Records
---
Amino acid sequence: MPRGLLIFGGTGDARLLCERLDEQGVAYRLSVATPAGRQQAAGLQGEIFEGRMDANEMADFCRHHEIGLLADLSHPYAAVLSENILQVQRELGIPLVRYNRPSHIDAVDNPLVHKVDAIDSACELAMQLGERILLTTGSKQLADYIARLPGKTVLARVLPTQDVLAQCESYGLTIDQIFALKGPFSAEFNESFYRYCNADVVITKESGAQGGFSEKVAPCLALGIPCIVVVRPQTQVSGDVTELNNLSGVEQYLVSRFSVC
């Protein structure tokens, strides 16, 4: 049997998995990057560690805590984190299970939906499509978007945390441009929100059902608003890695390898 289990992820997927592991009596440690991730993990029975780690710090952590199995339930766009986890897997030879949140991007086929593979492409297109550009992409790369949208009115929907709001203000966004809300939201809410913002363009990510992707896109189609979707980064996987796109499958994989601790 593996020794310790280390799960990466401050997502709703990670919380749901941990709740199921709690019910099964499986012990684990959960690594989250931000205070928001810690809040998401409130009430879980596992030991929570907050703060970003590079690959070397992850490897040291695994050695110190005798980790025998890794689980990557990070956000689909946390490419750097996933690459670091893969590096640790290769370096230490620890088995890794990765949850690939199901995508719905292939089901979207409409002239109003523009699929791009990078922020540069998203902003270049948005510059041509309108003046008021609504970002539903989070705060992590907000500065990159603002820098690439000169002369446009950037509207940012972000998490309502002190750090994120301070970050928005440091980028020069005013109170008329910051919308601090925690999703996911219904399509009806988003349609009203887009109307309220008077958005000309919406930029979003391919976040899947957990991130409310369809509920973000459908109102754009209803309102005739161009929607730019930054598709997910692709990570090259090798070594002792199991990839699953079903959360129940990840649960079964982990439960089958751990006894009650």
---
Amino acid sequence: MTPQEMWNAYKQINPSIGDEIDAWAFGVDPDLLAELVFTGEKTATASAYDLYTVEDEPLPQEGTFDVVLDSKDQAVCIIEITKVSVLPFHQVSEDHAYKEGEGDKSLAHWRQVHEEVFTEWMSEAGLTFTPDSKVVLEEFRKVYPL
């Protein structure tokens, strides 16, 4: 299903979502992570704050809806952003790591994986990752399909 087709189907249920679609795939292993969202195992994500500035992108907003895509840009599900916060990397909690639903769901696993990814992505943008680097933490819930 295309993102537009899924958006149109959900709009029949929730007309307040409007017409503007925000559709994206997770940067690392989009198929696995989209499946974790679809099954309800993954209810949170994190991204490097500084990359929003470099790419001139607005931060995610609570109450907005996004189409989660797979690696072939097909719609997997629609989520509603329920919470957004910005913290230094070293202050991310065990609770958030668990909600991300990856690996063994531990904070140690979360830190290892995210430090590697953020270091690489920030380096590509000419930035340096440190434990004090800010991260954008999002929590969400799947709203379609139920």
---
Amino acid sequence: MLTFIYSIRHFFERNGFYVSSRLADKIGMRAKIIRLFFIYLSFATLGLGFALYLTLAFWLKIKDLVYSKRTSVFDL
């Protein structure tokens, strides 16, 4: 049972969207504090924090696809 929980945790850490890390870098805070904020927001608002997290994740993914860094003009 414990290995199953660790495998789920490892899966989410490996395939995460890095929303809290990127938001923490942008604001200048620790990622742990941002993660706790989303957890507390989810409990306080009955899932609204999780919906906000997913919205930010998909928005950041689309932003990365549109604004990819190009090394030169010829990469267009």
---
Amino acid sequence: MSEFFGLKSSSSATPSDMAMRKEAMMQNVRSEMALANAQELINKAGEKCYIKCVTKPSTSLSGSEETCLSHCLERYIEAFNVVSRSYSARIAQEKDSL
């Protein structure tokens, strides 16, 4: 299993090598989570705004549907950003209190 993570053997790696690999892996996980969150945001916003704004689906959007979708997506992203900032601040606060 150690070969899977790019380690030849655990006895040959120095503590600083292990720390660097751990940090790189954690950064990779953070990036993957951010990407997954962004994809979920787009999917959920698209679903909810479409249901709200497109009452009679057709081959094109009306002007009012376009406006509604635009406003809906803006609000959804604003709300997501507020929640994200609050969550990040709380995590930082809890980390500092440890």
